[in-house]
């Protein structure tokens, strides 16, 4: 057994974990490639790039084990496979809210993609002001052992939403400010979130008048 500060794993379990992470990584790149192709198509058809940039990440083993422990789940490969759907993640930063829904819906409609779960924090923001569209997709990975569908969490948000979320995350998890100052900044960020939302709506309306890209307001629906 391999003894770590988080748990114990046999050599066979370590090998199985490495193989599992390969599947997650393959699914992550499968989805990101599909997104890049959609972005290229929008540029050709509408002279508009809906995706400003993308960020990919795989959770570390420490992060995976920590999440299982916080949820009171067994520390095992099966537990990861059955309970964690955000091991592979992609953050898609779009220019406008229309782009968020257009790209997410076009991706959701592809025949080899399954939509497992949708949480729309744009239409229903969190209490702290957080806005983003979270979609968990199942994407196929083709290996010598056959086809494997693996979950990938994709967070769609605008530049303004991402700018706000980065600062809020730093305030919550990376600062050691006194409680009073923390509460003050949290309220300010909530006010900023509302202001940014109003500004985004105004800028999107201008964009709609000068650009012929699709206008989509519908949240993706689950397919699995």
TrEMBL record:
Q: Does this UniProt record's set of keywords contain DNA damage?
A: no
Sorted alphabetically, the Gene Ontology BP terms of this entry are: guanosine tetraphosphate metabolic process
Q: What class of enzyme is it?
A: transferase
Domain RelA/SpoT: from-to ranges? 56-179
What are the entry keywords?
Kinase, Transferase
> Gene3D superfamilies, from UniProt?
Beta Polymerase, domain 2, Nucleotidyltransferase
Q: Which Gene Ontology molecular function entries are recorded, alphabetically?
A: GTP diphosphokinase activity; kinase activity
SUPFAM superfamilies given in the database record: Nucleotidyltransferase
Give the E.C. number(s): 2.7.6.5
Pfam families found in the cross-reference section:
RelA_SpoT (PF04607)
PANTHER family in the cross-refs: GTP PYROPHOSPHOKINASE YJBM, GTP PYROPHOSPHOKINASE YWAC
List the protein's name.
GTP-pyrophosphokinase
Give the species this sequence originates from: Bifidobacterium merycicum
